[in-house]
Amino acid sequence: MTRLLLFRLKNAMLGANLISNVIGVAVVFLMVQTSGTGGTPEMESWTRAVDKVFLPLSFFIPFLITLIYERPIRRYWEKRYRMVMPDENETLQAKARLLNEPFFLICLDFGVWFIAAVLYAWLHWRLGAERRLLQDVLTRSLFTGLITVTVAFFVFEFVLQRRVVPHMFPEGGLWMTPGTLRIRIRTRLTAFLFACNILPFISILDNMMWARQVPWEAERILAKLHSAIISQSLVFIGVGVWLAILVSHNLTVPLREIIQVLRSVRDGAFDKKVRVTSNDEIGYTGDVINEMNEGLMERDFIKTTFGKYVTREIRDEILAGRIPLDGEIRTVTVLFADLRNYTPMVERTEPKEVVRLLNGYFKEMDEAVRSHHGLVLQYIGDEIEAVFGAPISREDHETMAVRAALEMAKRLRDFNRELDGRGFPPLAHGIGIHTGEVVAANIGSPDRLSYALVGDTVNLASRVQDLNKEMGTEILLTEATQAGLREPFSLKPLPPVRVKGKTQEIQIYALGL
Fold it and tell me: How many CA atoms lie within 13 A of 28 on its CB side?
């Protein structure tokens, strides 16, 4: 924050109030020039004398009161300029004061002009002015106050939204600031209606009342009315056009930003934010859209992250709620893959290299499983557990598992050629495949769950994988898997074997590469 920006932020509302009062006085001055009061020279002399005292005070005293009101706001900006973070109470107080300042200044301005109305009316009464003149003086001061606060209403809103709020509320959330009043859309439109219709109507009525009371001849009154109505109409037209531009800007700019952000959301981009500069319905809508975008970004992140663990097809099915995760019995094909001679490799290789080797191997194996509609459930040390047919049912899950095993073997050969070029010994693995019933569910603690398979099928698949060491093979599958294959593969039947935990022998097949 530069010193110039600090000066602008601290004095933005003060300057806006000064401009509003000058505009109000200028409008009434133009109106007076076309109508006149008809007071005596003595009264006009006294009025000018009071003006010399009252007009400076009418600007100076509100100036001091405004400075006192703005002390928390100014302290906040000074700390921000000095790169000192204000505490929470100071920040909340400054924000509340800033959002309530337009209402405070409007009340202050109208109070000053109300005092002016009473003071000047009392002065003319003391000097023996006629009732018509007293009414004219009282009306003119009140009318000046009405014009001033109406203009100030829109000037304050413009300055607040475009100059100050973006720096104090960079993340929006104005409506959440406690103890603040809100400038609602209905309030804006009511003020605009008052400025463009009611005030001109009051001005015309004032001229008509003046014409009825002034003791002039008809031609002179008509000429004066003609001049006054034309000039005042031009003034109100100019003020009305200017206010229309302010109102249009204050409403259309945030709505345009909302539309642009919503278009980005429609196109799948959730990183855009609405710049919230008001605490009305539009500001609340902007905050809700920003919160929605944050939720969509988080969901998209979860969706993308989830896609690192499962295939896109499985991810979308789970997120859509079409897959029950509270436990179901499924017939699936389970695949286990385990690296050979892993422990000696770890002993003679740097830990970081071991991690890189494992990650490279797992990457290739995972892509092979995914490409055939499988799901890697977990990595256990150097072992991979994968499933085909869950959580999405597939009638050809046996075939998909065997295809994946063949691709895993091919990818391992390609990976070993890469390792050889880097001076590392080749890797070897064993793969076991078995088909059967399992319980598939989300399993774990309430704070951490994982999609897992439970049942004898899982244990048997792991035992079959381990048989590769005894058989000198790379890929083994059971008879249950072989019976479900829907296309021919190069299978070699091996003698029945008994595995740990089973009382009966099982028939296994070696898969030719």
Answer: 23
